[in-house]
Predict the 3D structure of the following.
Amino acid sequence: MSRRASRPTGPTAASAGAAPGRATAPGAPCPCGLPARYADCCGRYHAGAAAAPTCEALMRSRYTAFVVQDAAHLLRTWHPDTRPPAVDFDPAMHWTGLEILGTTEGSAFHTTGTVTFRARYTDDGRPDALHEKSRFVRHEGAWVYASAVFID
């Protein structure tokens, strides 16, 4: 997901152990859609306790970072050549679901990979979706988001 920002935004208060921004309790289901608790799934990547082992895992953690408004994780996992100076979260936008449609490469044995997905959201209460093919690369040993092509 490639939402760029023009102005910095600071995090708001969150529950203990959750990412900054919108509160997500560590024991709550992970917003990425996998059958795991937030703390055991994307929360560990947000906290820096682990690095995403695959492009798909990084994509899921970045989607969840948009859900919980964790700008630090988004910026940390964005390639420095394409990283914006800040991430701007629209308060009227609420992410409601992620569907992974396909992946190419992106495992521990690759240096590049792609993830095609559909992320559903509401904007001021109106439902919509973002359909994108994101490209990931290894940078200093870790997967990072590099660029995207919007579909539809």
Remarks:
- The longest strand covers residues 126-139.
- The helical segments are 42-46, 55-68, 71-76.
